[in-house]
Design goal:
Layout (H helix, E strand, L loop, with lengths): L9 E5 L5 H13 L5 E4 L11 H13 L3 E6 L7 H12 L4 E5 L6 H9 L3 E2 L4 H10 L11 H12 L4
Parallel strand pairs: 1-2, 1-3, 3-4, 4-5
């Protein structure tokens, strides 16, 4: 029986918009490598402080919740990108495992140390290595605790007919 993409571990890739040309082939390599990884990523053309940025952050937060880990593909411009910094902070709040992988030509150095200081594990940019890292400690998306508001909303939906 074939494994569906929904049953594969979904990773969220974050990287600086300036590194898009390096991140695309890296994402293609991760997608094609062994390990059965599914990827999600986004590069916003909107400035971080733009009026629509709240909507973008809400969309990214929802997409992050469906992932089991966040991988920061880092290069020279990574720390200058507000979207990357926000994504890493959001992943930390979700208690996602954080992984850092250097893009081609990136010198790990200080940036790898900084990522490690926030709890990111530095891994090679290979699908098998990332899949093995996730397999060592099974990671499932964090389930949200049931709240009274969520339960009340579900009961209200059940009360109304679905036409």
């Amino acid at each position: 029986m074939r494994e569906t993409t929904q049953s594969r571990p979904r990773l969220f890739l974050t990287f600086a918009g300036a590194d898009l040309a390096l991140a695309r082939p890296a994402a293609a390599q991760l997608r094609g490598a062994g390990g059965g990884l599914t990827l999600d990523w986004a590069v916003s053309s909107e400035p971080f402080a733009a009026p629509r940025s709240d909507l973008i952050r809400a969309s990214l937060a929802l997409r992050l919740k469906h992932c089991v880990a966040t991988v920061c593909l880092f290069g020279a411009e990574t720390l200058e990108d507000d979207w990357v910094r926000w994504t890493l902070a959001a992943a930390q709040q979700l208690r996602h495992p954080l992984l850092g992988a250097p893009l081609a030509g990136a010198a790990p150095g200080d940036l790898a140390d900084l990522l490690a200081s926030i709890g990111a594990e530095i891994v090679p940019l290979r699908g098998e290595a990332i899949a093995q890292r996730l397999a060592r400690r099974p990671v499932l998306p964090r389930a949200e605790p049931l709240t009274a508001d969520a339960l009340a909303g579900a009961l209200r939906m059940m009360k109304h007919s679905l036409r």
